[in-house]
What does this fold into?
Amino acid sequence: MARHFANWIKSYIDYTRDSESPDAFHFWTAVSTVAGALRRRVWIDMRKFQWTPNFYIILVGPPGIATKSTSTRTGMKLLESVPNIHFGPPSITWQKLADSLSDAIEHMKIINGKGEEEFIPMSCITVPVSELGTFLKIEDSALIDVLVDLWDGQQTKWGHATKTSGTVDIRNPWLNIIACTTPAWLKANFPDNLIGGGLTSRIVFVFGDTKRSLIPYPDEVIPHASYRDTELKLKADLLEISNLQGEYTLSKDARQWGHDWYTRHWTGTRPLYMASDRYGGYHARKQTHIHKLALVLTASSNNRRVIERATLEEAAQILEASEQHMIKVFESIGMVSEARHVSELVAFVRAHSFLTSDHLFRLVQNIMTQKDFNESIQAAVRGGMLSVETRTINGTVVRGVVPSFLQKAP
It folds into this structure.
C-alpha cells in the first residue's frame, strides 16, 4: 500500500507544531516511535553481530519548561494504534523486565537462504517513561547490567528464573526506551563512573531548556479536521512501517562512506567538545548509533531495505548536532562541588545580567558557604564565564559581575 507521507518523521514533526517543546524532543520521539513499530523485524547483518533499530533515548530539561512527557506521549499514542506492539512497565526491576519480555514473544515468518519457510522468535518491547527516577535505579546493578546487555539487540537466548515457571529462555530479546528527566535528577543520581562506558554510552541524551514557541491555546494552531486527518494518516503509515521485515543492506556508496568515516573517526582528532576520556564509551559506540539511526531514517521514508550514502551522512550529522546536547548533560553528571557552585553562580548572574558580590551571595548563601562562594566566583572569572564590571547605579559607583558575553567593549 502506498504511504500517505514521503517521510514519516518529518510529517510527525509538522504534526506536533502545536507543541512548545523543542524540535529535538519531537524528532527523537519520532525516532523512538518508528523504532518501536519496526521492532527486531529488521536488521543490518554484520555476520558476528547485527545492528537493530532500538534506542535508549532520554529527554532532559527543567520541569514544566520543555514539556518532555507531553512530547513522548504524542508519539507513543500513535504507536499504541499499531497491532502487536508490546509496552513495558515504566516502573521496573530486571525481573519485571524479563517478565514483560516473556509476555511479548512473537514469531516472524521468513524465507531463508535455502528457500525454506522459517519462523524467527523474538521478544520486543518499548518502554515509555515519563519520570526516569521511577524506572532506573542506579544502585540496582543487576538492572543496569541487563539494560547494557539488551541494548545490543543481538540474536541470543536470554534466560531468567521465575517463582512459578522455573527458568524461562527468551529468544532474541529487544528493548526500546524513551524516558524523561531533569538535570537536577541526573546530578543527584548519576555517578561519574557511569559516563565513561556502560549504560550512559548507549544512551542518546537530548537536552532542551527553552520553549520553541509560546502557544497558550494549541487548538488555535491546527484546525481540528486537519489535525485528525494527519493523525489517521500517520497511524496508517506507521502500520505500514510495522510490517517491514528482513535484512537491510548498505548500498555500495554507503559502504564506501562508512569506510571513510570509520577511518576518520579512529585516526583523526576528536572534536574539542568530545576530547575528554569521559566520552570514550560513546565515541566507541558512535558507529552503532549512526547505523541504528540510518535504519530508522530509511524505514521512515520508504519500504526499500537499502540504506543509501545520503542517509548515513544524515544520521551522522544528526548525531553530531545532538552531541552538543549530550555534552550539556554529561557536564552536569559527576560534577565536583566547585564546578557545581560555579554553575549555580553563572545561572544567577545570567538571570539578573548584573549582580554585586554582596547581592549574589545573598541569593546563594543557602546552597554554599562564604568560602565556597569566594572560591567559586574567582574560578568563574578565571574561566571566562563571568567578568567584573563597574557601573553607576543611582549615582553610586558599584562593582559587580556580568556573564562574559554581556561585558561592554572597552
